[in-house]
Amino acid sequence: QVHLVQSGGGLVQAGGSLRLSCAASGRGLSREVMGWFRQAPGKEREFVAAIAWSGDSTYYADSVKDRSICSKDNTNYAVYLQMNNLKSEDTAVYYCAATYYTERYFWERSQMYTYWGQGTQVTVSS
Known about the structure:
Helix content: under 10%
Largest sheet: 7 strands, mixed
Structural class: mainly beta
Mean pLDDT: 94
Distance between the termini: 40 Å
Number of helices: 0
């Protein structure tokens, strides 16, 4: 069982930055991949970024890859999503999630993730 607790988010002006955090606990974490997803009102949940606990692999959606950094703290089992130059279209509820599928092919697929954080609202004002 894995438990994910998110923090961060809130209201930020367009062009600004924020950092989301996700603290993970539970068994088997070192074998998992951590993902970030977001869901805007009336839209489907979409992939944002992912990072593997083992090694340095990261992966980003095209919409954020030039202005986001996904990082991790292996000691404390925390992952972070730093987003810069925020745009109004970044407004959404953001979720961290964990999957045991280590092949990058699966990282964009929300249905492959077993555990989810509680979600945190990010609102970008223009």
